[in-house]
Amino acid sequence: MAGKKRPKLKDFETAHPGGGAFTLIANDMFTSPAWMDLTKGQQLLYVYMKTQYYGAKAHPDGIQERFHFNQGLYSKKLKLYSNREQFRKDRDALISHGFIKCVEDNATTRKSSVYEFSSKWRLFGTTAFYLSLDEIPASMQRKITANNSA
C-alpha cells in the first residue's frame, strides 16, 4: 500500500522551497461564527496550537487530537505572550468557542498542560452548543462559579 503523498508547497508558502511543514486549517472554519467572534490574537493562538499539534512527534496519552502547550513555548520560543494572563484569556476564549478543550490543566505544576482539539465550534451560537466541566480548566471554572454566585 502506497503512503500518502504530501502536497508540494509553492515557493511563496515556505522558507524552504519545495518542502517544509504546513498547518492545515479548513476554509469553512475561517468563515464560521465562532471564528469570526474571536480576536486576531485568539485566532493566531489557535494557528500556533495547530502548528504545535502537527509538529509533535508523539501525542499525550497516545490520543491523536491531543497536544502540549506550555508557558516556555508561548513566551520564550514563539514569543507570543509576555503576559500569562493574556494567554489564559485567549486560551479560555478558544475553549468557550469550542475550538479546544483542556484535558490536563497543569498551571500550578511544572508540567505542560494538555489540550485536545474539539469540533464543538461548529455548534457555537446554537442551542446545541454546551461545554462540560471536564473540558474547562480550573481557572475558568472558578470564574464561572464566581459569576454565578454574584
Summarize the structure in words:
The chain is an alpha+beta fold and 150 residues long. The protein has one domain (26-149): Arc Repressor Mutant, subunit A (Orthogonal Bundle), CATH 1.10.10. The protein is 37% helix and 9% strand. The chain contains 6 helices and 3 strands; from the N terminus they run αααβααββα. It has helices spanning 27-30, 33-36, 40-55, 71-77, 84-96, 138-149, and strands at residues 66-69, 100-104, 113-117. The protein has a 3-stranded antiparallel sheet. Strand 2 and strand 3 form a beta hairpin. Helix 3 packs across helix 5 (84-96). The longest helix has 16 residues, at 40-55. The chain starts with 26 loop residues before the first helix and ends with a helix. The relative contact order is 0.13.
Key terms for this structure?
150 residues; 6 helices; Arc Repressor Mutant, subunit A; single chain; 3 strands; alpha+beta; three-stranded antiparallel beta sheet
Q: How helical, in percent, are the residues?
A: 25-40%
Please tell me how large the radius of gyration is. Answer: 17 Å
Topology as H/E string?
Answer: HHHEHHEEH
The residue-averaged pLDDT reads 81
The backbone outline, from C-alpha atoms, is globular
Biggest beta sheet attributes: 3 strands, antiparallel
Say how many strands there are: 3
User: What name does CATH use for the topology?
Assistant: Arc Repressor Mutant, subunit A
